Amino acid sequence: MIKRMSKPSSKLVKSAGSVGAFTLVSRILGVVRDAVIALLLGASPASDAFFVAFRIPNLLRKFFSDGMLTLSFVPVFSGYLTQGGRSRAFDMARSCFLLLSVTGVAVVIAGIAFAPLVVGMVAPGFAPDSYTFSLTVLLTRIMMPYIACVCLMAVAMGVLNSLGHFAAPAAAPIVLNLVILLGAYVLSPLVGSPALALALGVVLGGMAQLALQVPFLLKQGLSFFKKTELLHPGTLEAGRRMLPSLVGAAGFQINIFVATVIASTLSAGSISYLYYAERLVQFPMALFAVSVSTVLLPELSRKKGANDSLAASEAFARALGGVFFITIPAMVGLVALREPVVSLLFRQGAFDLSCVRETALALLCFCLGLWAFSGTRLLVTLFHGAGDVATPFRAGMAAIGFNLVAGYLLGHGLGHWGLALSISAAGAINFFILLAGAPAHVDSLLVKNIAILACRSFFVSVIMYIPVSYGASLITLEFSKAEMLAVVAGSVIVGIVVYVGTFMAVWGTGFELVRDTNKRR
Questions:
Q1: Which of 59, 111, 139, 254 could form a disulfide with 53 if both were Cys (CB 3.0 to 4.6 A apart)?
Q2: How far apart are the C-alpha atoms of 183 and 113, rounded to whole Å?
């Protein structure tokens, strides 16, 4: 066993834990938000309209916050910070804020003006003269200002994370979800439509989460009112990396977007089933993979600037091993409990038993790719931290190309769950292409040992599946919410005990593989 963790590793774990704690709260509130949406809208034309309209700004939020802007901005900003100090780094940050402010306003105006065209492209299955199409256009126009907030929020997140401050950016989604929930209950009676109230809540939430970052940026010494160069060299360098970063880091979100487009041509409710299922898969992925990668990116960028490849390699190995150790059993457990979890969270109001079953089917197919989605998130972080944007770009393009073909065929052949299956397969393709290129930046023996650790986790997770699935089988339609919660919680606790106990009894922590690799090196 590893008796003592190095100081940098301990700091990485502490920061990841801080981000994970805030992410946990935000994801719980996100599930509550989705439960409220299910209560108000169910899986109906109105919910399809809201999810399509929300998908556009939310996709951009994923692109910027989790994808191209963060991955393209942080390495460049960290380079200026290491080599030129805060003054030079803040010059670049001000340039990004100014440029994205202008760009964001232009995008918002264009989005409002061309909303019918945008909706027609995103949801070609919505008839132009239908109620669903008209409502989607209206909701899209209302939520467009959220895009400008997202752009600026991404820069604020990049600056604070690079400076070692992770709490405020991680807490921002909490504010967003709280405001959306408040809008659902307070604004709904005033505007007369739950969908309109939710859309207004999205915009107000975006403004609130951006405002949360400002005091922390000022505390770090960033002044917004100094003379600023619009096209700073660092901004241009980050811009050069943006498109490869988009494809490499946000391939999962692009594939979800493609699935939404195809789902609009399927039966009513298909978009909603995919949305609810994806949200549940996002819970463990964001809680562990995204939280760890958020902290890992500036860490790898700093170590690259200091030419400390050994420390960078060890940090990545511990991060990927830890994420696999948690997400693989989470995947198996979610498969076993898929119907009880969907029923517990969403079955109420307009969300009936048939909606539960269709959503659970999509969730099953998404879960099959959870390990790949999580592993890809960290591998992309590794490549970008090392300054390699080409490999994630090629892997992302291969996965997107596969999903375009397979999604069309499986979607029209199997329905909405075929789309989820296609996305999981595309995620696996993306992961294995990245893994093949990882030895260029990480010791090949270390990669092999992490693969062994993942196989061990999967083997023990299969054992864990037996008691967890038995617990799920005890739940009947007559169960109340409280009884269902008790059985689900009990099954989860039993699963954790079986998984951790079996793993520790057979292999200890498993991270001796990382230690032994470092000793051999």
A1: 139
A2: 25
Of 229, 29, 233, 60, nearest to 148 (Cα)? 60
- Cβ atoms of residues 512 and 321 within 8 Å: no
Contacts of 103 (CB under 8 A, 6+ apart): 151
pTM of the model: 0.69
Task: Using the structure block, give the residue that is written with the tokens 């498969």.
Answer: 335
Dist CA 58 CA 153 (whole Å): 13
At residue 163, the pLDDT reads 82
What SS3 state is found at 348? strand
The CA–CA distances, whole Å, from 310 to 307, 314, 443, 449, 470 equal 9, 6, 9, 16, 45
Q: What's the pLDDT at 14? A: 61
Structure tokens at 135: 């409502």
Q: Report residue 438 as tokens.
A: 């990882």
Whole-angstrom distance, CA of residue 4 vs CA of residue 213: 35
Residue 455, CA distances (Å) to 176, 312, 331, 465, 492 in order? 38, 24, 14, 15, 21
List the single range of 94-98, 218-222, 310-314, 449-453 with lowest mean pLDDT.
Answer: 310-314
**Residue 174 and residue 26 in contact, taking contact as beta carbons nearer than 8 Å:** yes
The span from the CA of 190 to the CA of 472, in Å, is 41
| Number of neighbours of residue 394 by Cβ within 10 angstroms | 17
Question: Residue type for 421, please?
Answer: L
Residue with token string 């291969």 = 398
Band (4; pLDDT cuts 50, 70, 90): very low
Longest dimension (CA), the chain: 68
Whether 342 and 276 have beta carbons less than 8 Å apart is answered as yes
With both helix axes pointing from N to C terminus, report the angle between 45-61 and 145-162 in degrees, rounded to the nearest 10: 40
Helix (H) or strand (E) holding 409: helix 390-414
Q: Where are the domains of the chain?
A: 45-247
Instruction: Please enumerate in sequence order all residues whose Cβ is within 8 A of that of 512, keeping only pairs 6 or more positions apart, or say none.
Output: 1, 2
Say yes or no to pLDDT of 513 above 60: no
CB 362 within 8 A of CB 417: yes
Name 348's bridge partners. 351
Q: Please provide the average confidence, as pLDDT, over all residues in the chain.
A: 80
3-state secondary structure 246-277: HHHHCHHHHHHHHHHHHHCCCCCCHHHHHHHH
Quote the pLDDT of residue 149: 86
